[in-house]
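Re: [ENG-882] Designed sequences occasionally contain unexpected residues at chain ends

Forwarding the minimal case from QA. Structure tokens:
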């Protein structure tokens, strides 16, 4: 023992912009709870500086990073090794620095599943699922949802061609179809509707298919806020059985990253309570 304090392991989240990110608070609560000695930084990095910033963080002793918008897809090109789930979703949200190698993983899908099944108690086997939106967020969640063996997944999107590309990509793995919002059949009703458009985050309320919601439909918005998002208010107004924002997914995906880095799984319920938001 040389009496020097142990160097603190560095982690952080890189995005652009990133000031709104809750990840530093969540990871600090995880660290306090588990007694792990680490620091977690907020790193605003423009797309043109991404590669340099990641390499510099690694060179200066960084152990791992979360990657958020708009970098999640670009980062897949910068890693030495990609997990199966990151490869399938075409996006990385977690980097682990191992010696000189960079490992890229994606914990968003498993984070959603832990919230839907573990926290909220949904039974997804044989469920009819409607996903609104066909961007990166949708691509990241279809694989894990199909693993739960639903009866069907319908992807509805403003731009039909994007929904079709995703449906074709995943159709070998399960029953996935594509349509426009207005083509969701009036008679259809769904067990679960997931809003994966970026509309809520922008405060917009697109003409979502009203007839898809019944009093047995569970509605989940991947977006979250301190007050209800436009989608979650819309779903509640339409009489959904429940309308929930994505706070649980946010904390669950963070817990998966923390586990990858530290080999310790935090108690997510406690942290959800500490954040004082209603899930
Ligand atoms: P992300 O990675 O967050 O999914 P993205 O790839 O830009 O971001 O995808 C955003 C999704 O939200 C798309 O499905 C987009 O619809 P289009 O494919 O038609 O562009 C959808 N979206 C965003 N704003 C919307 C709005 N106001 N109305 C309807 N759909 C919207």
């Amino acid at each position: 023992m040389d009496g020097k304090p142990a160097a603190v392991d560095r982690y952080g989240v890189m995005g652009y912009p990133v000031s709104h990110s809750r990840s530093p608070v969540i990871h600090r609560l995880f660290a306090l709870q588990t007694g792990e000695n680490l620091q977690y930084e907020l790193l605003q990095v423009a797309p043109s500086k991404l590669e340099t910033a990641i390499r510099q963080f690694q060179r200066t002793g960084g152990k791992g990073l979360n990657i958020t918008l708009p970098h999640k897809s670009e980062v897949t090109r910068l890693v030495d090794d990609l997990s199966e789930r990151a490869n399938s979703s075409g996006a990385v949200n977690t980097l682990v620095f191992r010696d000189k190698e960079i490992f890229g993983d994606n914990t968003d899908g498993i984070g959603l599943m832990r919230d839907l099944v573990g926290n909220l108690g949904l039974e997804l086997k044989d469920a009819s699922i409607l996903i609104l939106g066909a961007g990166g967020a949708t691509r990241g969640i279809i694989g894990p949802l199909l693993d739960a063996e639903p009866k069907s997944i319908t992807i509805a999107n403003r731009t039909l061609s994007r929904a079709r590309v995703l449906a074709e990509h995943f159709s070998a793995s399960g029953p996935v179809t594509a349509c426009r919002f207005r083509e969701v059949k009036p008679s259809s009703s769904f067990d679960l509707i997931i809003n994966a458009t970026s509309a809520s985050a922008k405060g917009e309320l697109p003409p979502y298919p009203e007839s898809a919601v019944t009093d047995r439909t569970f509605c989940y918005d991947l977006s979250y806020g301190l007050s209800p998002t436009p989608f979650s208010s819309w779903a509640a107004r339409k009489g959904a059985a429940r309308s929930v924002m994505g706070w649980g997914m946010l904390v669950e995906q963070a817990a998966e990253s923390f586990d990858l880095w530290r080999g310790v799984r935090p108690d997510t319920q406690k942290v959800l309570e500490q954040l004082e938001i209603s899930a």
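QA comment: On inspection the terminal residues look reasonable. Residues 109-245 form a domain with the Rossmann fold fold (CATH 3.40.50.720). Proposing we downgrade this to a documentation issue.
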